[in-house]
Design goal:
Largest sheet: 5 strands, mixed, barrel
Radius of gyration: 18 Å
CATH class of one domain: Mainly Beta
Number of strands: 14
Helix content: 25-40%
CATH topology of one domain: OB fold (Dihydrolipoamide Acetyltransferase, E2P)
Distance between the termini: 14 Å
Strand order of the largest sheet: 7-8-9-11-10
């Protein structure tokens, strides 16, 4: 977690943040394509929807739903994968899922739903830690029901907050991205960092030691390489191409798209760098 030479990157996916009494505006997020190579508009739209966006409850409720394209938009930016920090106000358990109401003091409560993973032995412990009045960070996909009349976040990560600096980090992230979009939309902030990360890979990704989420084939190979990367900005497509020469670029990009849509990975500093949601 750091501000590095004009860009903000996440320290890890399992954020350890907290909620505070923030009364700021609704914020925004990074301009699509910032620091990315030139691609056509249809590819931009696809990649943009796979980018993890820091939002507030105000953005969650103010985003407009386009029923034709089945997408939410705020400030002309598509919203798909999001992260939000807040305190749990309500918990309702069902047989297959748990519904939460999250409060970040910027708007109405945010509806969050997370499926129960009966095959994960640690899932009971994780659920027991996320009760009323617990501060959490939620990461998931923003979904619409009843043609946009109802909305919620389908969470694939919901973790308790332990670091009381995380609230500042989260809202700075929202504000920073909003300012980048409004004041410097053409600034390539993603390429301003020259710090070379050390010890990028902690293990041999093909030798086990990672939770491959039951994946198979190319998806498993690509996911394991991404999970093995410990760099804050994640692993780039260029690096993945070098490590997966037997897969081919088309199959590689198909795997990246599938893994992103399924919530296994997310893009970081631009649309060509990825991290695992399990890291």
């Amino acid at each position: 977690r750091q501000l590095t030479r004009g860009r903000l990157v996440y320290e890890k996916m399992n954020y350890q943040g907290f909620h505070g009494n923030y009364q700021g505006g609704d914020g925004g997020f990074m301009s699509p394509g910032v620091g990315s190579p030139a691609i056509d508009s249809s590819q931009k739209k696809k990649n943009r929807s796979q980018t993890l966006l820091p939002i507030t409850a105000a953005i969650f409720h103010k985003a407009e739903y386009n029923s034709t394209e089945d997408v939410f938009r705020h400030d002309d930016i598509d919203i798909h994968q999001v992260t939000i920090v807040g305190v749990i106000r309500e918990v309702q358990e069902a047989a297959t899922n748990i519904s939460y109401k999250i409060d970040d003091m910027t708007g109405d409560l945010v509806s969050v739903r997370k499926w129960i993973d009966a095959e994960d032995p640690s899932d009971n412990l994780k659920r027991s830690e996320c009760r009323e009045d617990t501060y959490v960070r939620v990461v998931g996909n923003m979904k619409s029901f009843n043609d946009g009349q109802m909305r919620s976040v389908m969470a694939f990560s919901l973790v308790p907050i332990k670091d009381f600096d995380e609230i500042s980090f989260h809202f700075l992230d929202v504000i920073y991205a909003n300012l980048s979009l409004k004041k410097a939309p053409n600034l390539s902030i993603a390429n301003n960092n020259t710090d070379a990360p050390l010890n990028r890979f902690s293990n041999d990704p093909l030798g086990g030691g990672f939770n491959d989420a039951g994946l198979t084939g190319n998806n498993k190979v690509v996911f394991n390489y991404i999970s093995a990367c410990t760099a804050e900005q994640g692993i780039s497509i260029m690096e993945l191409k070098q490590k997966t020469k037997n897969i081919g670029e088309v199959q590689l990009r198909n795997s990246l798209e599938w893994l992103s849509n399924e919530g296994h990975i997310y893009s970081t500093i631009d649309d060509d760098h990825f991290r695992s949601t399990s890291n």
